[in-house]
Amino acid sequence: MNIKPLKIILIIGDGMGDRPVKELNNRTPLEVANTPNLDELAKQGVTGIVDVISPGIPPGSAPAHLALLGYDPIKNYTGRGAFEAIGMGLSLNMGDVAFRCNFATVTDDWVVIDRRAGRYVSEGPVFEKVLNSLKLRSAANVKIIFKHSIEHRGALVLRGPGLSNLVSNTDPGKNGLKVLEAKPLSNDEASIRTAKIINEFTLKSFEVLKDHPANKDRVSRGLLPANIVLCRGAGVLPHVKSIKEKLNLKATCIAGVPLIKGICKALGFTVLNVKGATGGLNSDLKAKAKAAISVINEVDFIVINVKGTDVASHDGLVKEKVRMIERIDEMVGIILNHIDLDSLCISVTADHVTPLSYRDHVGDPTPILISAPTIVPDDVKEFNERSVLKGGIGRIKGVDLMPLLLNYSLRSKKFGE
Ligand code: ZN
Ligand code: ZN
Fold first, then answer.
1. CA proximity to 198, closest of 236, 162, 158, 159
2. Rounded mean pLDDT, 328-334
3. How far away, in angstroms, is 219 Cα from ligand 2 center?
4. Distance from the CA of 2 to the center of ligand 1, in angstroms?
5. Which pLDDT score is estimated for 193?
6. Distance 79 CA to ligand 1 centre (A)
């Protein structure tokens, strides 16, 4: 009998699940898309639905990925900023507090004209230097580390004793509103101090950026000045066991966006930097498939995130979402053609449902399939929100997924004697 453990591949179509779409005759993008490979996997395997966090709770992508990778999101989600920062290549220590940041354009009295400063801030590296040399009165013993990533985005890390991630955002989240004051979300000294530091950082960022020559140059070229840094998503690294310690898996992550890369790094995955994997609608999914094929012999578990489905959903782009799903199917096809299926347990799901009609995450369960030679298939022959309702997995929570995958891949430990 072959008891060699199977390799595991988990494919997460970000926000891939949907609701009936008017423009698609009340079918969902997954129902309309041409997905021969996903349908074949559904036919050979079992299907069902996942309450990624809990029934009816709309998941953020970060806690959703924690859950799907086997980590209780309620206990282990400690804010998004830390994941974003390490996903951008900053190294974080335990206790560092990190924020997601935007260069934005504000009026003199801090009403937000564009919270993305026109989206393209090629002067980012210049501004980064200025921000890293700021001296803050409220931040004695605290090191300020700012890093620009792409477009208008960046991350801020506060390093030092007595800091907290329990502070609110300065980013109001919408144009036309005033920049918010960061508030402590708890009454302890660390939260009060961290809020003070963020407020002083925000003020100083405005002071050094508003008259910066690079911004004057932007204005002369008809661009919006990037005259302030807005912060949100305060986070610290979670105290968790690595995926190797926890599930005995040598794991690799293939993703385009810093958030997912950062989560996986924090959980001890190796993270591949795949050329062309952008996290956008233009992402090179064939390159992702090839990357997976190239490392499968060296690892036990590969997770692949495709962000484009969520991007299309937030922007209400019906055709683009359908096409993105078809491109995920093509990616799966390449993987299936190059990996020995007798030694593979493959699962496809979404981290949350992002309906095109709602343009944000909702608490509906996500569709899932698992296919492996060890599985007794159910009668479901297509992969979409409707068909999987009849599937053999039934309804599970996000944290139940890894135990199922470990079981079908012959990697589970027996409970009791
Ligand atoms: Zn997501
Ligand atoms: Zn989203």
1. 158
2. 98
3. 32
4. 37
5. 96
6. 15
